[in-house]
Amino acid sequence: MGGANGKPCMTDVFNPTEKTLDALGVSDPVGVEKLFHDVREQFDRQTDAKSPTEPNYVGLKNAWLGRRAGIVNAIAENWLKPSPTNLKPLVGHALNGLRQHIELRLETMRRNTAASEEESALARERVDLSLPGVMRPVGSRHPIRQTFDDIEQIFLSMGYQVVAGPEIETPYYNFEALNIPEHHPARDNMDTFYMETPKGAETRLLRTHTSPMQIRTMEKQKPPVRIIVPGKVYRRDNPDATHSFAFHQIEGLAVDVDLTFCDFAGTIDYFIRQFFGPGTKSRFRPSYFPFTEPSVEFDASCIFCGGSGVTGAGATCSKCKGSGWIELFGAGMVNPAVYKLVKYDAAKLNGFAFGLGVDRLTMLKYGIDDIQVFFQNDVRFLRQFA
Amino acid sequence: MKILYDWLKEFVDAKAPAPEVRSRLSLSGTAVDALEETAAGPMFDAELTINRPDCMGHYGVAREVATIYRLPLKRVEPKLKESEEAASAAARVEIACPEFCGRYTARVIRGVRVAPSPEWLRKRLEALGHGSINNVVDATNYAMLELGHPMHAFDYDKLSEHRIVVRRAKAGEKMRTLDGIERTLVADMCMIADASHAVAIGGVMGGQDSEIGFASKNILLEAAWFDPISVRRTSKTLGLRTDASTRFERGADPEMADLASRRCVELIQQVAGGELLAGVVDVYPRKLQPGVLLLARRELLRVMGGDVPDTEIEAILKSLGFAPKRTDKGGANSPDAVWECCQPSWRADVAREIDLVEEVVRHYGLDKFAPRLPTARTTATRLPNAAAEDRLRERLAGLGYQEILTIPLVDPAVDAMFRAEGDAPVHIANPLAEDASVMRSNGIGNMLAALEWNLNRGQRSLRLFEIARAYRWNGNAPEERAVLTLGASGYAREKGVAETPREFSFEDLKGDLDRLGELAGGLLWSSRGPAWLHAARRGEITFRVGAANGTAGIAGQLARGVAEKLKLRQDIFLAEFLLEPFYAACSIAKTARRYTPISKFPAVERDFSLVLGEGTTFADVAAEIRSLRIPEIIEIEAVDLFRGGQVPAGKFSLLVRVVFQSPTATLAEIQLSDFSNRIAAALIEKLGAALRTA
User: Fold this and answer.
1) pTM for this model (two decimals)
2) Closest residue in B to A149 (Cα–Cα)
């Protein structure tokens, strides 16, 4: 039963522990044992496991084991200390037994209380793991940028140097120096934007490929040359799903005394397996570009139909038109005519060049079928590349 | 170029199924894009490279197939029935401009019956996309598709004096072409004329007046060779591309003119009858001696890195018409082997040793040269600012900005709205559209377009960035400068189960920019900015370190008037700065970075609640406090700001926190109160601040 101040106590009317044994009229072992028995019973009632009259652990601990006002302390002060010599060992023994009993029971009680409190706290605090966390917005690199970075990384691993050049070029670097004289039909495939130039200024155009940097580099640098040139290029094509009048290229050039077509094939082969995965098959098809000879188109096995030319539904694959191959980019051994203009010795040097279409490679890699999405910058598109 | 397999088979005994031929053609340089079934049998759609005019007829492609399968190519030997009368008595040809016309042959056929074409002829032409006109015109087209050489049939009776004069066009000369359009000609065009007027544009299109019709009886058949550049220029100037012009501009075979003419006559006689006058009128001012070329195995090895056996080299070159002959004394497959080859008239593109190498290897098989990785001989080197650009991109992504990529050809009206004063814009002389006719002078227009695209599609909270170039004229030279452009709008923080929403504000933009500035040693802000930014929420940026040559960038909220004009209904925040000075500052800041020891003694904060007059800035307060030169001050922060309530109009309340710390001792209360008193006194005296006790 709780006291008026909420603290547990022996009884409201009578508390034997406030008196000495003498005052209680106890002088024999039987009396002592009875006293201790009563006190213990009182404690047990208060702390009964099923219906404790006093569930407050802290209060109980203070009432029974409190250093100054605790009952156990009172017994020691009032019963043990003044007890007659013949009863002292018995009282001391009984007191120890009582103390141990109380300590043990209270400790058990403490543990149980803590466990149940923790349980209710957990129920209250438990998170719903199906709810989203606080998603701090993160940005991402544009997929075209990621392809640029991936390609750069592959060529850096082969000891290439990255260089950049102007987008607004002169006809010399864009055409003539690359063996594409005026009236060359190759210019038809590279319909060109020209600039309105200030009076007295040289003719300028928007480069149609990143190849002018081949020339600018060889003009400045002696072999060995190993460069890649990432950048924007422009062609005067009406925009549709596969054409944009601005797009992205990485030009590559390697010139040295001992480079051959086999080195070229090995370099491209390594690149393509790094970029698309080790299972990708590739092939060269002879082609024509004014600045390379022999020239090739480079094809990879069609990633949409697995190179079979037929879709899962049995129809002709629309991406490779049933051939099983996808044209990736043009390349070739550098045409000796190009060396002449940069004063390289065509009889001693050899090299290769390639022009990777970054947009096309990105489209193939992620299965994108419209080049325009790159330039719309819809965040729902961009976030897919975070 | 569309090629019928059955037609090829007339010249080569190919037995392979069409899909295999398609693939073999592609792998040897004649790219076949598609294989279709037509009324005239399987058809290859080949995308020819521009160096191969010889393949613009079936015979040339048949030569490729013959080489692929090492089969003989049949000769074309037309059988003609000639009359007694000589052609030279019936027509005269004169070339006044040999620079444009290297050869002109004329044959005369009398008494043809012009009629619709027979079924077999129509079927092939139609399968290849040519409408049937009449048997004579169809025969010339058929011969062209077979041998690749364009020809033209004139109505002989409509040629004044039966004379052909090949000359330059006269100034202002006009002629009606076969398509019914009257063309105005200029002096560098090559005209075919009779004694009185022009009857055709050489190598491009015939004239209406001398066209073959059902009433025509007598024919003059032209088979000529026109200069590629002249034809190309004429075709471009007139905007007139024809079967003839696409063949001549790539370089037709002058030797083929006569054979094609005879084959054409054979066909005409077969389908329209008629009597061929004996011989030919052939004016050939530019007859070339066949060139001699050498191919050395050493060069092939040097370029290719792998060998090709003698038998293969010889079989391929022979089949392609190069008539190779070994000229060295070495044995079979000797490394010193040299072949002397003669250049066939139809292969003007093969003029050097390297060209012969290419001919051999494209038919030998490029896959036979084993790939190998060359040894690296140079060090991997990135662009000079690549590392700083990586850091910038990383940080932007960390701050939640998505990278965009745009096309820098923009609308001049929009570009002008955001163009810095004095920047000369770079205009495109031949734009595809007015709204893409100037190179952007800044990234703001493109950024707004990207924001608008997203806002119009229900994407409300946006943070975008672009790293790209801005263009302008610097005197007579174009200048391309890298810029970073930021655009943001909507929520800085979206509402969620654990978050309250908050709109993006100028302070967000400034904080993000200062975070970027940390990479470069910090930004300096000044309250100026272009008129298109909100007058009260804008600033100019310079970099604290590096070249101190003026403003590097701007930041702020898009002015409401401009936003309204662009129909943007929510607040837009924009920033742009030049990247060259940023990268320079990054580099300096990185080099200058040094460690600051961390004091072992506790830091103590003291708050000052100030009431200040409007116009006083936090920077003024901080400068005043710093001017006291108390070395123990390690930080001055603004913690709270408010207006209204108990703060009188014209004033605002600012809570400033000063942090003190000594590297050598724990600060005593007496020291701290001395600092506080001095700070309070200075702010009251110098800035007229009132101190509110917390």
Assistant:
1) 0.85
2) B390
What is the mean pLDDT of the segment spanning B305-327?
97
**Cα A377 to Cα A142: distance, rounded to the nearest angstrom:** 9
Query: What strands, in cross-sheet order, belong to the sheet with B633-642?
Result: B633-642, B651-660, B604-613, B690-692
Place of tokens 């292969």: B347
How many Å lie between the alpha carbon of A47 and the closest alpha carbon of chain B? 43
Residue pair B257/B346 in contact by the 8 Å Cβ criterion: no
Could you tell me if B482 lies within 8 Å of chain A, comparing CB atoms? Answer: no
- What whole-number distance in Å separates Cα of residue B293 and Cα of residue B322? 9
Give just the sign of the alpha carbon dihedral B250, B255, B259, B264: positive
| The one-letter amino acid at A204 | R
CA dihedral B78, B79, B83, B84 (to 10 degrees): 90
A chain contacts of residue B400, beta-carbon cutoff 8 Å? 136-139
pLDDT tens per residue across span B71-86: 999 999 999 989 999 9
Determine the residue of chain B that is closest to A334 in CA distance.
B303
How far is Cα B467 from Cα A207, in angstroms, rounded to an integer? 20
Q: Say if residues A298 and A329 touch (Cβ distance below 8 Å).
A: yes
| CB-based contact B407 A195, cutoff 8 Å | no
What single-letter DSSP state applies at residue B519? G
Cβ–Cβ < 8 Å for B252, B286: no
Residues on chain B touching A225 (C-beta within 8 angstroms) = 378
Give residue B312's identity as a one-letter amino acid code.
Answer: E
Q: CB distance B400–A286 less than 8 Å?
A: no
Residues 6 or more apart whose CB falls under 8 angstroms from that of A262 comprise: B304, B305, B306, B369, B370, B371, B372
Give every strand in the sheet of A246-256, ordered side by side.
A161-162, A225-234, A246-256, A350-357, A325-334, A292-301, A282-289
Cβ contact B171:B189 at 8 Å:
no
Dihedral sign computed on CA atoms, order B422, B423, B426, B427: negative
Q: Do A244 and B383 touch (CB under 8 A)?
A: no
Amino acid symbol at B81: K
What are the structure tokens assigned to B100, written together?
């444009």
User: Max alpha carbon distance in chain B (Å)?
Assistant: 133
The runs of H, that is alpha helices, within B399-505 are: 412-418, 444-455
Q: With 50 as the cut, is the pLDDT of residue B546 above it?
A: yes
Nearest CA in chain A to B397: A139
Task: Please give the structure tokens belonging to residue B5.
Answer: 């397999």
B489 three-class SS: strand
**Chain A residue closest to B350 (CA)?**
A293
Contact B130, B190 (CB under 8 A): no
pLDDT per residue as tens digits for the range A26-47? 888 888 888 889 888 888 888 8
Both tokens of residue B500?
């309250």
Beta-carbon separation of A139 and B369 below 8 A: no
Q: What percent of chain B has pLDDT over 70?
A: 99
Strands (E), B451-546: 462-474, 477-489, 491-493, 502-503, 523-526, 533-543
In whole angstroms, what is the distance from residue A205 CA to residue A182 CA?
14
Greater model confidence, B625 or A185: B625
Task: Please report the DSSP string for A56-84 in residue order.
Answer: -HHHHHHHHH-TTT-HHHHHIIIIITTS-
Residue B156 pLDDT greater than 70, yes or no: yes
Q: Does B474 touch chain A (CB under 8 A)?
A: no
d(CA A62, CA B463): 62
Residue in this structure with the two tokens 């070329």, named with its chain if needed: B293
Q: How far apart are CA B244 and CA B231, in angstroms?
A: 9
Q: Which residue from B326, B318, B363, B362 is spatially nearest to B344, judged by alpha carbons?
A: B318
Is A96 a residue whose pLDDT tops 50? yes
Are A285 and B29 inside 8 Å of each other by CB?
yes
Over the stretch B133-149, which tens digit does the pLDDT of each residue have? 999 999 999 999 999 99
Return the number of other C-beta atoms located less than 10 Å from residue B24's C-beta. 18
Q: Which of B26, B380, B469 is the closest to A167 by Cβ?
A: B469
